[in-house]
Amino acid sequence: MGGQYDANTSPPRGPNVLLRDAAVGYSNRLKSAYKQKDRVLATAEGREEELHAYQNAHGTWRFYRTLCQVRFGYLSFLVVMVLLMFSFTLLMEIFFAIFLPSAKYDDYYTVRAVVSLILLPIVLFFLSYIFEEASRLFVDALNKSDGSLPNFRLALAVVIHYLRHRTELAEPEESGDQAPVDDNANEGGDELRRTRSSRTGILHQRTSLLLTAKNDPFLDDDKDEEDEAWERKEAAAEQAQAQAIEATETRSARLSAVGEVPQKKTALNRWMRAKAAVKTTLLIKKKRFPQIFGRAFRKFISGFVVVSLIFFSSSFIIGTFVTGGSFKLGPFDNSTELVSNELKTTHGLSASITVNGKIISFDDTSEYAACSVSYDGLSVLDLALMADAVYGTTTKIQKDAMENRFNGTELEDWKYVARNNESTDGQNWMEVYFPAVNMTVIAVRGTASATDALEDMHFWFGICIMQAINVFVPFLKQLPRAFVVRLLSMNLISAIMPSPVFTDLLNHAVDTRARVGDNLVITGHSLGGAIAAMIGAKTKTSAVSFSGPGLLYSLGRFDISAQDVRDYVLTMKPRKDIVPRVDELGGLVQEIRCKRPSPMGCHSTSTHLCELYFSCGDPRQRNWSTNEKCIEYGNLPSGDDDDDE
């Protein structure tokens, strides 16, 4: 009673005692299973059966392992590609913060340039580390040999080992489960403690056998002891070498004090120090330290320079050869005979098809859905003429182009309201008001110089690189769009970046929108078209872009939403034009025919004007018959079959 128990009865059995007995029983069963397996393998039939079972299991696990390796390799490849694109974009952003022409107009240009140059080595150090580690992860993922992912595999092994054996690893808490024992039961208590001690020893011994079983693929027996022995050996060798060098230097110093240093000994000491340095270098290379400025990163820098030169050269070519503002129409004549001839030329009934036995006649030219779009009386063709007129280098050239295109029509009372500040604004634009329809149009000039080409590169360099690589290695669609948008936004360094080139234009558009309300349309060609679309989405204003790049991957960079692009933007996209293929177009996209053979020809404003005239006609009855560009375009063979693509 009260803590005493009879010697013939069993001692009290608490929860921890039951747990201990269960572990001992499991260890005994495991040991018996090993002995039984050894007896089976002692026979030829048993070994043959074991080999067949091993071969079947090996084939199954090999397929599963290959599948896992493919998935992990593809994941590591995506990681490398993301870091590659991020590195490209980040380095180019720092370059633009210093050398972009529009950045020099900023009040803090000098401070920004100095800060960017100071941060450049730090950025290179950071990029080199993450790039080397990512490339190493990708290479290791492709390696099928065991231990190819030491750090990753070790961490995974620790987690799996804990999940497998967490119950065996738990230390029993016996303090709360021991029954009280009085002085009269000391002899029985000693026997109980000896029994517990004996059983605990067996438990630890057999649990050790359980946790270090040879068939556990995640364990490496004696690895810690081998590592410690190797480290002790290396430390002893280094210490002996250091003592030898110190003794040699001490002897040389003593001989030097008395002027008895032989030349051969001095040379020998230098060679010994050089040899020690080489050994140390080789030893360091054997270590798996984080690599900084390794071979992969040096190749990346070389590739960055080459790709940048290619993109700069192509942008410079586009910016140099794109022209506009020189499109001339003939003298205005709205006589019935001339209008009739023009309509027959452009919209003659020259083709027919048979459907269900009935003949349907139609125009030989295309009739686009955008032809019927009207912005309170302004057609898409009117806006295309204005997008071309803004290419004039001076105010007089722009006004002359407007007179040639609108005087004599019902819109001849137009008023030239404003244009950009030619000395400070990097983006050229003009504002025109049409009292007859109470509409204001802001036309934005596109790429017309090397400076404009640099601005193109600034906004769309990152997505251009991603799309160019995606042609050969399709990975862009494997990444979430929201992730790519955030990656290209470069919010990480937005604080040190200069104000965008379109800042003054955006401020003017906001003021105009507040003044005229919904009676505003923004239009432009090429870069100007993308800027017009961006400002239209930002200010919730109707915008028409002619051959402008897309915006859906650049939403974060311009701080706009895909919904606003969808609701307010119309893009005219000639086939074979490569500029609208940059990024991804949103909103209403009207693809139009291009009869010219080259992408540069399809990108020009004259292609838009002539194709829209031949397809939509001109309700304002302008005289197009004398325009040489449209005459030449009309005589080109179509050669634009949608079925070919």
Automatic annotation (TrEMBL):
Disordered, as annotated region: 171-197
Gene3D superfamilies named among the record's database cross-references: alpha/beta hydrolase (3.40.50.1820)
Membrane-spanning residues: 72-99, 111-131, 300-322
Fungal lipase-type domain boundaries: 441-568
Keyword list, A-Z: Membrane, Transmembrane, Transmembrane helix
Highest taxon, organism lineage: Eukaryota
Any one Pfam family match given in the protein's UniProt record, by short name: Lipase_3
GO biological process terms held by the UniProt record: lipid metabolic process
Protein name, entry field: Fungal lipase-type domain-containing protein
Organism for this UniProt entry: Phytophthora kernoviae
